[in-house]
Amino acid sequence: MNTTIRTLSLALCTLLAATSLHVSAQTAASAPGTNSAAASGAEAPATPSNTKLRRAVYTAIAKHKEIHGGSIGVTAKNGAVTLNGSVTDAAQVDKVAEIAKAVPGVTSVTNKLTVQKPLGGM
After folding, report:
1. Which is more confidently placed, 7 or 84?
2. What is the number of structural domains in the chain?
3. φ and ψ at 73, to 5 degrees?
4. Residue 70 CB-density burial (10 A; 0-12 exposed, 13-18 middle, 19+ buried)
């Protein structure tokens, strides 16, 4: 009798553990931000790709020493890049947009950059 109870208890614990693992795996697969449409390619990639694209744009801007990228903000979502902030010269507004457009994975660029005059300057 004791052996039967132990066997049933062990079987029940094993079943519970297996069920918990299965539910945990399903929860991770259907976490917010991931869905079957994204997995099939119907929607844009998840956030990590946006982060990589944003970093790639920052890196491309940083390669141009004539542009002070410290006051430029880059937002990326599904290949669409938005540039915010300011530059010191009007010519740099278009230059930064060209640099961003040349980054692989960028599908469009919205340029909201402005020209920042130096303090006390004209």
Report:
1. 84
2. 2
3. -105, 140
4. exposed
What pLDDT does residue 101 have?
Answer: 96
| pLDDT at 8 (0 to 100) | 62
DSSP code of 21?
H
Contacts of residue 30, defined as CB under 8 A and 6 or more positions apart, other chains included, come to: none
The answer on 58 and 22 residing in a single domain is no
pLDDT tens string 80-98: 999 999 998 889 999 999 9
Domain residues for the domain of 54 are 47-115
What's the CA gap between 55 and 15, in Å, rounded? 46
Q: What percent of the chain has pLDDT over 70?
A: 59
Q: What is the CATH number of the domain that holds 66?
A: 3.30.1340.30
- Tell me the two tokens of residue 89: 């010269």
Cα Dmax for the chain: 95
CB atoms within 10 A of CB 82: 16
Dihedral over alpha carbons 105, 57, 116, 120 (to 10 degrees): -170
